[in-house]
C-alpha cells in the first residue's frame, strides 16, 4: 500500500509539527487536517495532546471532527491518542469546563470529582480528573517510569518496549479509577496511579508524548505505523 496516510486531527490548539515529523520518520505519509472527509478516509488517525479537554471536544463537535473520528473507528481505522488525545477517548472530563456546563453528572458526582463535566468521545469507559497533591508539583512535567500490564507486554504497540522505561510527560489531568481494567496496557505513578497506555479494539492512547520520548517513543510511533499498515484499508 506504500506509505500509509495518517492524519493528525487538528482542533486548532497548538503546533502539531513534532507529531507529524515523528510519524514521517516512522514511515508514514503524515499530515494535519480539520476536514471531516480527510479524517474519514485516512489509513490511520492520531489525536494529539495540546489544549484543554473542554476546548478540544467543543471544537471537534462544532467542526464535525468528532463524528468523523467515530465513523473512522467504527470502520476499523487505527487511532492513536497522545496526552489529551488519550483523555478524550473516555466518557467525560472536567478540564476547562465552564461552571454552568455540567451536562451529564449529578450534583453529588460533580462535587466529589471537582466537576462540572463535559462528555468525551465515549470510546472507553471512565473519566479524567485533575492530579492532586500537597507535596508534588502539578502539572506533572518530565520523565517518569511506565509499568506494563500483562496485556501491555503482549500488545503490538509496545513491541520492543522496555518495562520500566522512562517516557516524557506533561499534564495536569489523568484517567481516574473508574477506567475498565481490561483497557489498561500500562500505568505510571505520580500523585496517584493512573493508566498511561490504553487500548480498546483499534484505539490506542499514550498519556506521555512518544514524539518527545527519544528512541523508545519513536519505537511506539513506528509500531503504530506498522499497525496501520497491517490494517490495510
What does this structure look like?
Helix content is 30%, strand content 29%. With 233 residues, the chain is an alpha/beta fold. The protein has a single domain (5-231), classed as 3-Layer(aba) Sandwich (Rossmann fold). It has an eight-stranded mixed sheet, sandwiched between helices. The model is unreliable at 103-113 (pLDDT under 50).
What characteristic shape results from the CA principal axes?
Answer: globular
CATH superfamily: Class I glutamine amidotransferase (GATase) domain
**Sheet with most strands:** 8 strands, mixed
Oligomer: single chain
In which order are the strands of the major sheet placed? 2-1-3-4-14-13-12-9
The average pLDDT score comes to: 93
The total strand number stands at: 14
**If helices are DSSP runs of H or I spanning 4 or more residues, what is the number of helices?**
8
Order of helices and strands: EHEHEHHEHEHEEEEHEEEEEH
For the record, the CATH class is Alpha Beta
Distance separating the two termini: 9 Å
Low-confidence stretches: 103-113
Computed Rg: 17 Å
Range of helix content: 25-40%
CATH topology descriptor:
Rossmann fold
Amount of beta strand: 25-35%
Amino acid at each position: 500500500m506504500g506509505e500509509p496516510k495518517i492524519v493528525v486531527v487538528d482542533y486548532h490548539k497548538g503546533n502539531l509539527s513534532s507529531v507529524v515529523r515523528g510519524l514521517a520518520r516512522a514511515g508514514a505519509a503524515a499530515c494535519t487536517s480539520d476536514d471531516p472527509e480527510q479524517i474519514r478516509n485516512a489509513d490511520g488517525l492520531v489525536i494529539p495532546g495540546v489544549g484543554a479537554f473542554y476546548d478540544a471536544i467543543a471544537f471537534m463537535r462544532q467542526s464535525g471532527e468528532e463524528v468523523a473520528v467515530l465513523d473512522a473507528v467504527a470502520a476499523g481505522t487505527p487511532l492513536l491518542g497522545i496526552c489529551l488525545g488519550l483523555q478524550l477517548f473516555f466518557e467525560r472530563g472536567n478540564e476547562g469546563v465552564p461552571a454552568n456546563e455540567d451536562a451529564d453528572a449529578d450534583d453529588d458526582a460533580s462535587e466529589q470529582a471537582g466537576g462540572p463535566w463535559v462528555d468525551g468521545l465515549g470510546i472507553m469507559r471512565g473519566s479524567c480528573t485533575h492530579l492532586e497533591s500537597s507535596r508534588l508539583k502539578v502539572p506533572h512535567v518530565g520523565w517518569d517510569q511506565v509499568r506494563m500490564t500483562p496485556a501491555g507486554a503482549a500488545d503490538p504497540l509496545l513491541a520492543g518496549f522496555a518495562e520500566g522505561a522512562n517516557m516524557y510527560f506533561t499534564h495536569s489531568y489523568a484517567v481516574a479509577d473508574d477506567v475498565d481494567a481490561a483497557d489498561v496496557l500500562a500505568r505510571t505513578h505520580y500523585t496517584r496511579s493512573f493508566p498511561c497506555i490504553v487500548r480498546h479494539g483499534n484505539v490506542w492512547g499514550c498519556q506521555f508524548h512518544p514524539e518527545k520520548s527519544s528512541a523508545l517513543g519513536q519505537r511506539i510511533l513506528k509500531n503504530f505505523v506498522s499497525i496501520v499498515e497491517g490494517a490495510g484499508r
